[in-house]
From TrEMBL:
<comment type="function">
    <text>CRISPR (clustered regularly interspaced short palindromic repeat), is an adaptive immune system that provides protection against mobile genetic elements (viruses, transposable elements and conjugative plasmids). CRISPR clusters contain sequences complementary to antecedent mobile elements and target invading nucleic acids. CRISPR clusters are transcribed and processed into CRISPR RNA (crRNA). Functions as a ssRNA-specific endoribonuclease. Involved in the integration of spacer DNA into the CRISPR cassette.</text>
</comment>
<feature type="binding site">
    <location>
        <position position="8"/>
    </location>
    <ligand>
        <name>Mg(2+)</name>
    </ligand>
</feature>
<protein>
    <recommendedName>
        <fullName>CRISPR-associated endoribonuclease Cas2</fullName>
        <ecNumber>3.1.-.-</ecNumber>
    </recommendedName>
</protein>
<dbReference type="GO" id="GO:0004521">
    <property type="term" value="F:RNA endonuclease activity"/>
</dbReference>
<dbReference type="InterPro" id="IPR019199">
    <property type="entry name" value="Virulence_VapD/CRISPR_Cas2"/>
</dbReference>
<dbReference type="GO" id="GO:0046872">
    <property type="term" value="F:metal ion binding"/>
</dbReference>
<dbReference type="GO" id="GO:0043571">
    <property type="term" value="P:maintenance of CRISPR repeat elements"/>
</dbReference>
<comment type="similarity">
    <text>Belongs to the CRISPR-associated endoribonuclease Cas2 protein family.</text>
</comment>
<keyword id="KW-0479">Metal-binding</keyword>
<comment type="subunit">
    <text>Homodimer, forms a heterotetramer with a Cas1 homodimer.</text>
</comment>
<keyword id="KW-0051">Antiviral defense</keyword>
<dbReference type="GO" id="GO:0051607">
    <property type="term" value="P:defense response to virus"/>
</dbReference>
<dbReference type="InterPro" id="IPR021127">
    <property type="entry name" value="CRISPR_associated_Cas2"/>
</dbReference>
<feature type="region of interest" description="Disordered">
    <location>
        <begin position="73"/>
        <end position="100"/>
    </location>
</feature>
<dbReference type="GO" id="GO:0016787">
    <property type="term" value="F:hydrolase activity"/>
</dbReference>
<keyword id="KW-0540">Nuclease</keyword>
<keyword id="KW-0460">Magnesium</keyword>
Length: 100
């Protein structure tokens, strides 16, 4: 399955989340992780997140059967601050590899 996880936690706790999520997913942006993961890995990740989280933590999980059935876009505002948002497709999740 394809999974995307974001988190919003106290600054002093971000490294714990980053270390855990990097073991399972790709680190895309500050608190955003995404990638392919098996069902067994997803269960294990959720179990580890459960042990790490406290009630005030905010964690969002988006998952789907595969990475080819989801649309991901980066939204940006024009430098002038006016006009509609620009939608730029982010298709990294559709590739079988990433060129470094």
């Amino acid at each position: 399955m394809f999974m995307l996880i974001t988190y919003d936690v106290e600054a002093k706790r971000t490294n714990k989340f980053k270390k855990l999520l990097r073991r399972y997913l790709n680190h895309d942006q500050f608190s955003v992780f995404a990638g392919d993961i098996t069902d067994a890995q997803a269960i294990k990740l959720r179990r580890e997140l459960s042990q790490l989280m406290i009630p005030d933590d905010k964690v969002t999980e988006i998952s789907c059967a595969n990475r080819h059935n989801i649309e991901v876009n980066h939204l940006s505002k024009h430098e002038s601050g006016k006009g509609e948002l620009k939608r730029s497709p982010l298709n990294d999740h559709r590739r079988d590899f990433t060129v470094l």
